[in-house]
Amino acid sequence: MVTLLRRLFHAFGAHSWIGEPGLVVRHYAPKPQNWPQDLPLRIAMLSDFHIAEPWTGLDALQTIVKNTNSLQPDIVLLVGDFEEGPRFSRHLPPSEWAPVLAKLKSSLGTFAVLGNHDYPRIARKRHRALPAPAAMGALEAVGIRTLINEAIPLPWNEKTFWLLGLGDQIAEFEDGRSLADLDRTLSQMTDDAPAILMAHEPDIFPEVPDRVSLTLSGHVHRGQIRFFGHAPVVPSKYGRRYLHGHIVETGRHLVVGAGLGHSGVPLRFDAPPEIVLIELGGPA
């Protein structure tokens, strides 16, 4: 049955993550003006796992890790939505999937932010902010630093750059305030070294200042189900403006990944799961 489903999905250009996933690698080489050319950095970005069996389960996760490691990144950045609800799937506790992600290899290590699905749902499009949700505890337990409204300096090639992780924009406190605090995150940078911002939802991008060299996001899944190149449903207040890929606005750079799993219906159509490889710096 699994083989038959896989053949049917692939025949129509769809992906379900049953069996061999049809994973692609998407490569970008942005040239932000405020990122030094003499500071080459090879980033592997992964987002929107929505880990659950039998879809993006442990076998699929092993495939993701293996393919990511083969790219020999300098740093691996995980941009949220590790968890998936029980609809159409069996939930996998973070204690089962975090050790698989711990096998990701890079010189600088693996860092993460959380997405809206990593917080408990309180309404259809609302999630409750918690100080330490289960996904964060599991990631930290296996050595994956998880940033929530935090900026940390990372030494690299005799220089330093800042890595920023924004709290999720949809997760909210009981008084309705968003967990995301961009001003607080930016204020922690103490020098003018270049900066990379991880923000699960791309909707924050219009507010990101020129100070940030590159913003990395996921969340919208490239529409997840597209027809004739059109995504009828995009979970963003900006519609398809930040649907996918390398986007430049007023000199500021954003890369939005298509993600790896699915939200809700266990199907991706014309939006294959992807690893994003980004190369900063180096020859002009």
Q: Your description of this structure?
A:
There is one protein chain. The protein has helices at residues 2-11, 58-70, 94-101, 134-141, 182-187; strands at residues 14-15, 24-28, 41-46, 52-53, 75-79, 90-91, 110-113, 121-123, 126-128, 145-146, 150-156, 159-165, 171-172, 195-198, 214-217, 245-249, 252-256, 268-269, 274-280. The longest helix has 13 residues, at 58-70. It has one domain (2-280): Metallo-dependent phosphatases (Purple Acid Phosphatase, chain A, domain 2, 4-Layer Sandwich), CATH 3.60.21. It is globular and about 50 Å long. With 284 residues, it is an alpha/beta fold. Mean pLDDT is 89; it is low at 1-13. The chain contains five helices and 19 strands. The strands form five sheets. A six-stranded mixed β-sheet has the order 2-19-3-5-7-10, covered by helices on one side. α2 (58-70) packs parallel to α3 and α3 (94-101) crosses α4 (134-141). The chain is 16% helix and 27% strand.
Basic shape: globular
Strand residue content = 25-35%
Kindly provide the name of the CATH class: Alpha Beta
Rg of Cα set: 18 Å
Q: From the 3D coordinates, which CATH architecture would you assign?
A: 4-Layer Sandwich
Number of strands: 19
What structural class should be given to the helix and strand makeup? Answer: alpha/beta
H/E element sequence: HEEEEHEEHEEEHEEEEHEEEEEE
CATH homologous superfamily caption? Metallo-dependent phosphatases
- Low-confidence segments: 1-13
Tally the helices: what do you get?
5
What profile does the largest beta sheet have?
6 strands, mixed
Mean pLDDT across all residues, rounded?
A: 89
Integer tally of domains = 1
Helix content: 10-25%
Q: Biggest sheet, strands in spatial order? A: 2-19-3-5-7-10
CATH-defined fold name: Purple Acid Phosphatase, chain A, domain 2
What separation lies between the terminal Cα atoms?
51 Å
